[in-house]
Amino acid sequence: MAKRRVLVTGATGQLSLQLLPVLRERYDLTLIDVKAEDRDGNVVDGVEVVDAMGVDDDTLRPYFEGIDTVLALAVKRVPSDDLETLYRDERYNVDMMHRTYRLATETGVRRVVSASTNQATKWYERPWHDGLCDRVGPEDYPKPERYYGWAKVAYESLGFLFACGNLGVTLENVQLRIVVPRQVRLRDFVGRHRRDYLRDIAGWISDRDLQQLFVKSIETPDITDEYGVPFQIFYGVSANTRTFWSISNARRVIGYAPEDDSEVTFADEIAKVTHRDVEEITEELLA
User: Which is the most buried residue in 88, 107, 113, 179, by most CB within 10 A?
Assistant: First the structure.
């Protein structure tokens, strides 16, 4: 049987590098990015250098033709303290996502799986820290705190627009709100409040759970919601004992079954801060 054809945008980014081992095994990949090297300067095998916003449709469209699923991982990130600069950069990202959806519909792509973020609902962490709420789920109204989260909310709204069929073509769409896709090291929290560390412990997702979440988002045949629209939002966290982000719909719709728990993986370091603040053990961490 021929492998499913998958286009990955932003193929040299860190999230893509975490996914590529399993993606290369399962799919016939087309990899594109604005550069061929990862952030450490290592060439990523098979990447074609394409600026998705710097070329015309006729140049970009062939990368979408014959593709079953697009993994939309591309994002422009330019650190800045200037709010207008941040807004313009995130508006650029929204335009890039719109172009991805549009070309996908024009070329008959079945599904787009987009890397969204918990930043779409970041504000809810405030009442969580204050003990005023216990969970946030995909059904809760988006409340971003920064332009980055605002842009991801816009990605998701555009995704629904293309999925509902009102533009003439139905494009299946999955938005993955990834929370903490990296190792949570206590040393990185020196001088910070304990709750910052425990927040990342609650939001951690292991590489194998991340890979499973993406694979099942690509391969599950039916992702329709209760109204028959092929659109879903899933949070990307492991089966963490301390958790805030609900994954019940991911378990139900695509059979997501995370294997890891940050409480087990980072047990030794968690024990150091259970009853103490990070500031109190700074000397131990730096020793």
Answer: 113
